[in-house]
UniProtKB/TrEMBL annotation:
This is PDR/VanB family oxidoreductase. Pfam families: DmmA-like_N (PF22290), Fer2 (PF00111). Keywords: 2Fe-2S, Flavoprotein, FMN, Iron, Iron-sulfur, Metal-binding, Oxidoreductase. It comes from Vibrio ostreae. CDD domains: fer2, PDR_like. Residues 1-101 form the FAD-binding FR-type domain.
Length: 316
């Protein structure tokens, strides 16, 4: 963890602002790879994840972009309404679960809305190394496309195709993917429905899972809670046992009992609360673990996932 100062705040699109975060006690901030994000500790006690959206070659400052969510769960509203230039924040070291594939000969980037942020960093890194790539960016209109002016006035314009839904320019992912070779890798970030659409197109065309990479910002509800059943939860480290009722999450039960659990998004997206499973079968409802990781049942996310078995034993 370290402290940074907000040294710039600029509008980037309708309801989207960018923030420049500068070091306080040292000349630079830690290096990072394209696709990385940081945890931002907000003044209202919340922790939120934001992708670093600038080139990894520049680490004198960090840049993030924040869309005002409607309704907001408290994070984006606090940033838009309260945070100002000169304020000091605590951030984590950069984390990366959305890497560029070293073996790929060509990179196909798909961004939906504010999902442009990690892909913008990737595109800049690829541009600087003369790597082969293309970027497909979908937004409602140019006014709602973050960093549109920056992208259309730089070398990125030669690699980027924009799609503005309100102007009738909708992405045809089937057509884009049909033109790719077996050496291409696919990267998607945006709303869940957007990712599902692009991935479905790729899988229909026979793309291997190892060539598909994605990052979510927000998830749709994990499952219909009317199907929930209570189950027993055992903590191997302490020997404690809890009943998780149908109307509560594992995370809520643990926090109510005073158990220290790291968490952030509470949507099964960020992976902050990932926990090892020692016995029992989880009912995975997250959007963080890959299908292979879910099938292994070695870990689950207590913020939204539950149990298919009568009990779960976890290491916490």
């Amino acid at each position: 963890m370290q402290q940074v100062k907000v040294t710039a705040r600029q509008p980037q699109a309708h309801n989207v602002i960018s923030l420049t975060l500068s070091p306080i006690d040292q000349p630079t901030l830690p290096n990072f790879q394209a696709g990385a994000h940081i945890d931002l500790h907000l003044g209202n006690g919340l922790i939120r994840q934001y992708s670093l959206c600038h080139s990894p070659s520049s680490h004198h400052d960090y840049q993030i972009a924040v869309k005002l969510e409607q309704p907001s769960r408290g994070g984006s509203a606090w940033i838009h309404d309260q945070l100002k230039v000169g304020d000091v924040l605590t951030i984590s070291e950069p984390k990366n679960v959305f890497h560029l594939a070293d073996e790929a000969k060509h990179h196909v980037l798909f961004a939906g809305g504010i999902g442009i942020t990690p892909l913008l960093s990737m595109a800049q890194a690829l541009l600087e190394t003369d790597a082969s790539f293309e970027l497909h960016y979908s937004a409602q209109s140019p006014d709602e496309a973050a960093f549109y002016q920056e992208m259309t006035s730089s070398g990125l314009q030669h690699h980027t195709q924009f799609y503005f839904n309100r102007e009738g320019q909708c992405l045809d992912a089937h057509a884009v993917l049909a033109q790719q070779s077996q050496t291409s890798n696919l990267y998607v970030c945006g709303p869940q429905g957007y990712i599902d659409y692009v991935f479905e197109c790729a899988r229909t065309q026979g793309w291997e899972e190892s060539r598909l990479h994605r990052e979510l910002f927000h998830a749709d509800p994990c499952a219909n809670s009317s199907d929930n059943q209570p189950f027993e939860l055992h903590l191997a480290n302490t020997g404690q046992t809890f009943t998780v009722p149908a109307h509560s999450t594992v995370l809520e039960v643990l926090l109510d009992a005073g158990v220290d659990v790291p968490f952030s998004c509470e949507e099964g997206v960020c992976g902050t609360c990932i926990t090892r499973v020692l016995a029992g079968e989880p009912d995975h409802r997250d959007h963080y673990l890959t299908p292979q990781e879910q099938a292994s049942n070695q870990e689950f996310l207590p913020c939204c996932s539950r149990a298919k078995s009568a009990s779960l034993t976890i290491e916490l």
